[in-house]
Amino acid sequence: MISDTSPQIGFDRYIQLDWARTALRVRSGFETLEELRDLIDASHTGIAAKKKTRTVLNRLWLEPRSELVALSDRAVAIYKSDPSASVAALTWGMAIATYPFFGAVSEIVGRLLRLQGECSSAEVHRRMAEVYGEREGTRRMTNMVLQSQADWGAIDRMSQGKIITARHKPITLTPELELWLVEAALRHAGRGMSINTVATSPALFPFSFSDRLAYNLSQDERFAIRVDSASNRIVALM
User: Fold this and answer.
1) Using CA atoms, how far apart are residues 124 and 147, in angstroms rounded to an integer?
2) Distance separating alpha carbons of residues 37 and 23, to the nearest angstrom
3) Which of 28, 71, 87, 161 has a CA 20 to 30 Å removed from the CA of 58?
4) Which CATH number covers residue 153?
5) Buried b (16+ CB within 10 A) or exposed e, 143-161
6) 64 lies in a domain?
7) Residue 1 within any structural domain of the chain
8) Of the candidates 58, 77, 100, which is a domain's last residue?
9) pTM above the 0.90 mark?
10) Which residues, other chains included, contact 132 with Cβ-Cβ below 8 Å and sequence gap of 6+?
11) What is the pLDDT of residues 178-216, one digit of tens each?
């Protein structure tokens, strides 16, 4: 469940996938914190910018919130057992679970792309303003999320970032990573989801799930399956 301590925006930096990968590798024991610092120092000029980037990377991988430590630990275990696992998928899952703002942008983009095939960044900004208001920084932070998602291989931004399209080839997942990503999505949602539609959740739009996902969910002890009043099978976290 999303806690009251969840940051309302928080994801206020453009995060390159290479930085996130290095942070994950530090957490996994494959690289050192000094190597991550050197990477950030080489790509940032100001002290404040370096600090903000480190804060986001800490929340994603190095110092997750207490209620997300187990989720993060499972992600690290997946990566350590298979370093070829999609870092984009792992970081995406931590981002939607950690930052409701990142998840909200993902849901809006996912819905618009499913309906229209492409969307304008102006439309995303407009819908985010409906949720978060026209407060200072909302537009800039939405841009940070979109820029990050493009670098992670989830979307393409054309016409100087004005038009957003999905990548032609969805990111494929191993069965273990599929289940982990669903867990992250459920933590973001804070409620159960239909087992038949969880794979098409707008927040998970960049990813391709196998036909066995529903069965695998029903066999995993992390998840509880119930039937609602409309006879829909609902998956939730135990």
Assistant:
1) 13
2) 10
3) 161
4) 1.10.10.10
5) bbbbbbbbbbbbbebeeee
6) yes
7) no
8) 100
9) yes
10) 8, 9, 101, 104, 138
11) 999 999 999 999 999 999 889 999 999 999 999 999 999
Same domain, 39 and 108: no
Pairwise CA distance, residues 50 & 40, whole Å: 7
The 10s digit of each residue's pLDDT in 19-52 is 999 999 999 999 999 999 999 999 998 999 999 9
- The interaxial angle of helices 17-27 and 87-98, nearest 10 deg, is 90
DSSP state of 64: -
| Number of helical (H) and strand (E) elements in the chain, helices listed first | 10, 8
- Can you read off the two tokens belonging to residue 34? 């000094």
Q: Are residues 107 and 86 in the same domain?
A: no
Q: What strands lie across the sheet with 193-194, from one edge to the other?
A: 193-194, 233-237, 223-227
Residue with tokens 């950690």: 98
**Residues 47 and 63 grouped into a single domain:** yes
Q: Are residues 115 and 144 in the same domain?
A: yes
Q: Strand, helix or coil at 167?
A: coil
**Does 4 reside within a domain?**
no
Find the domain containing 162 and state its range: 101-166
Q: Which one of 100, 124, 157 terminates a domain?
A: 100
- CB within 8 Å of 48: residues ≥ 6 apart: none
Whether residue 162 lies inside any domain: the answer is: yes
Q: How far is CA 217 from the centre of its chain?
A: 20
Confidence band (pLDDT; 50, 70, 90) for 8? low
Q: How many CB atoms lie within 10 A of CB 70?
A: 12
